[in-house]
User: Fold Anaphase-promoting complex subunit 3 from Fistulifera solaris.
Amino acid sequence: MGAPFETTRPQPKTTTPHHLSQYLSLIQQYMNVFRLDNAIFLAERCVAEFPTDATALYWLCFAYYRAGQLSRAQHLLSKAAHLTPQLLYLSAQCSYELKEYARAEDALLHDCRHQFKQQQSSSSQGHTFEEWILQTTPCPIPNGAAGLALLGDIFRKSNRTQRAIQYYQMSLQLDPFLWSSFQALTDLGVTVDVPTVFGVSQTTTAAAATKTPLQPPSPGLTPIHQNTTTTMEEETPSHTTVVLRRARQVANRGYYPPSPETPSLSTVTRSMRYLQGLGEAEPRSLFLEDEKGDVQTILQTLATMGQAYQELSHYQCQACLDTFKQLPLSHQNTSWVLHQQGKAYLELNEFTAAQRCLEHMKHLEPGRLEGLELLSTVYWHQKKEVDLASLAQHVVAWDKRSPQAWCVVGNCFSLQKDHEAALSFFKRSLQLDPDFTYTHTLCGYEYMANEDFEPAMACFRQAIRTNERHYNAWYGLGCIYHRQEKYDLAEYHFERACQIHPTSSILRCNWGISQHANGKAYQALETLAEASRLDPGNPQARFQRATIYSALHRPQEAALELEKVRDAAPREATVHFCLGKVYKRLGRLDDAMKCFLAAMDLDPKDSQMIKSAMDKLDNPDIDEETMIPF
Amino acid sequence: MGAPFETTRPQPKTTTPHHLSQYLSLIQQYMNVFRLDNAIFLAERCVAEFPTDATALYWLCFAYYRAGQLSRAQHLLSKAAHLTPQLLYLSAQCSYELKEYARAEDALLHDCRHQFKQQQSSSSQGHTFEEWILQTTPCPIPNGAAGLALLGDIFRKSNRTQRAIQYYQMSLQLDPFLWSSFQALTDLGVTVDVPTVFGVSQTTTAAAATKTPLQPPSPGLTPIHQNTTTTMEEETPSHTTVVLRRARQVANRGYYPPSPETPSLSTVTRSMRYLQGLGEAEPRSLFLEDEKGDVQTILQTLATMGQAYQELSHYQCQACLDTFKQLPLSHQNTSWVLHQQGKAYLELNEFTAAQRCLEHMKHLEPGRLEGLELLSTVYWHQKKEVDLASLAQHVVAWDKRSPQAWCVVGNCFSLQKDHEAALSFFKRSLQLDPDFTYTHTLCGYEYMANEDFEPAMACFRQAIRTNERHYNAWYGLGCIYHRQEKYDLAEYHFERACQIHPTSSILRCNWGISQHANGKAYQALETLAEASRLDPGNPQARFQRATIYSALHRPQEAALELEKVRDAAPREATVHFCLGKVYKRLGRLDDAMKCFLAAMDLDPKDSQMIKSAMDKLDNPDIDEETMIPF
Assistant:
């Protein structure tokens, strides 16, 4: 039995034995049918016989990876004498998932940096490393755009945000289909020029673009933005053409190397036939077609979605909803779009519409838990206890191990004012995913409801650590500092919240109040005017302006503001009362008396205070400055 | 912006838009580079546009599956109007991993059963369902042999062992490379005809086969074995040819459908070149070769390994070690083979050799935790505390979430006689994998060491529930029943252990002792004779025979056995003492005195008892029957 082996000993250096290709074909087939155990067994045998073959090593490590044995794959790769780009990429992926970011970065960049240094010494060009990467063909990073995107992820996770942004941008420049990079950039607060990135002609999206101009982000949040624009503009003349050419290359020719495999053309045809129903149909011609087709349909969809996603990210919620309506119905009726729409309506405080979208999403795909935490917040605001309890059951039944599940359950107890229980479920949610920003914030508000400010602040800070653009947490911190009378800190935190969500009237109103408290009356007046402009239906902004005018001894302007507030909210006793006091200062005693009577009529329980004011109507003012906010 | 979409609305029924193939190409590329987020996003868009396309649905569900969202994939598949075999297989895989075995079985068998019933009513053939499956071409089960193997897994996990065996056998008949099915059959105690299954001619493995004849398994353990033999024998005339033809089909043409994809031939070539180092080398011709090559090299390797694996499964440990030596060195020097060799040496109680194999395995692949629990047992037996502690650190550092890690740590504390700590770590091991048989057994022994028999028995029963062929647990139960003087139960459990491990002298010896205690003296003598034959170096079997002869008042035969024991173990005081007493009964008082003196010399601490026997040498015997076992 020993004899047959003597003649077939591995001869990796001279010719490649045919049974290597048979091994590889078998391993890939077993991977395709999820028989990882068999694939691993054969791949181990194959590597034993062909220890220097990169393809065999790739398949063994990939099988370990698929089976969840990341450290084992990583170790095996670390021992290999020479790593091909594909093996380096797999190694980086393993290290990334093992949270060994420095090692992952090294796998992707080490060889490149070496190559760059060699080229630099030979030619004296003044390129940066990143410029050199983009200008070199083929891209020197393993797996090109995917490698750059993975570097983006690595930098993001290791808190090197600027570099993350740079590499995401590079990856998107090489592959316009890398939606994940676009989404990451948007989530990081970078304003991406959507038509440019997706190669859609400016005219096509012009209507949407002019209707909803994207505000330039504040400098603090997107330090790299100028840089991008420059890079993109250099290519402007034929930019659309360039992007389309790249897109066609990616989609038709296969930009990324397919998994190493050995199928013949007939195999591919067979598999297609099989998929369509056991060899009954003829092989579909499209799979053997050449690259005549166009990619614009897909890019157009991505561009519209990207536009809407970016608008939502800048809290231009109505614009976002309008943009989504431009999608064909087949795309509008998907859970992802419904999720974004629900979020937009929630930001607009339109709870009924938000509920409709998110419930439709849940109906379409009950197993999709992303977004259900928002639905629970919608129910919470509407005080719908039964719906919230039923949603909690639903999410826990679908996936006990998801952070959304316990976030929803926590909200359920929060609505019942059982803060202890709510906090313990929120904590379970965070155990499952310590980066689940939303739960950190909800935890913070739960502590706030208990007047437990120290832990509340810790929660908000954690939320910001996981997502710097989570305005809710900045707002929560601002509220606490304001209550603690640390007005400068309150002002700073409200300002950060406003930078992220520039269209929120409520945030801006709070900012104005803290500016006033911090002694900046005139800035406060401007801020509150802007808040009033953003939502003319928000009486709080005008009321606060009236308070400031009154404090500045400008009762005329205070009266003007309060009159507008009264017209908008005629049943608010406090407004009438305050207006009465202002009229008194202006000497309009009859008007003042009418206001006090209206206030008394609307709010009999405060009658004592109002009566006292009426009694003192003829006495001079002493304490008008301190007005009671409603 | 709405306009472009009007013209490209999905038209699944008439012609297939080219951008469907572009979507599919992109999705597959992102899967290949582990960008599951991007693949899922694009697949969702693709399914929205082409809701009836099976390939698009497959990729979306496969992407969910890869991302660990099994319920979501399962739900999506359950809603589809028509499922192709590939989709049914994916659905079954999801259900299997979600432990929903009835649902998994239904996905694979429902359509087939329907088809079978229709055929049965039209033709009046008397085939069983399973015969019909094997005779129908192409195999009506989704993914053929892989589908049958998955059914084997499903039946095994749902405790339908006989059907599991049947389906594993069917899968192996269709695909001789399905090592996982072979291994499952062997682990279930089925004797597989190795040369037949792997299509290796009988003559090639004849040497090994005659040298180490496989014992037929006991009927209770392998009820289906006769069935197999019949099926195989029917094909004997051209069997090897048949297997080879099948093997060639699987390896060369691609028996399993590859993942649905759209690469052109040039793409495959490109990827190969890429893998070998960024387009430097020419495409390797082997990947475009046709099916001229032969599969015998691979099958030969599998046959040799299969032979060894089966021998080890029958505890023909020396034969197993000999068979492994027939492998080429490249295969011998792999961690899998070293693991099996280590196990074989451990079963032979050759701790030094076992340690050498398992340490070599650990050195080759530090990240391979399978088998390190055996190394910890080797250290335990050798009382190597330092090595065991260092091993415990190693496994915990590599993978805290593996059952092996905490099994080793438990052994570490067991050696230090800290039973409480050992038990708590063993329990952690079982939390991570409740089916990790070995830890159940170790738990049982730990409780036994504490004389805590009830929980010990519960542990041994759990071990048997997870693996009926784990002889160690049967042995543990036998020991407890023996100590509780429930000799019939002890006898039954020792017998089961002996059926599994027929070559163990120690197991058989215990069986004989319990037979004797149960009043079956003559059967006990036979059992002990066999135990003695299995390991002539084991003095316990002969000593027990002497005990029985003495109890049967046959001192002559008792003396003969004891003399042999004395010659083998001349420094055992008890043997001399017992021999002295037997000589006394035979009237050989001088010889008796010599024996007593020798015993006194070897074991001064029992001198009082020996002295008393010497004093009573001239008195007649009263209590010889009760002899002290050593």
In short: DSSP finds 36 helices and no strands in chain B. Chain B touches chain A through 122 residues (CB under 8 Å). Confidence is low (pLDDT under 50) at residues 1-14, 205-232, 261-292, 624-630 of chain B. The longest helix of chain B spans residues 101-122.
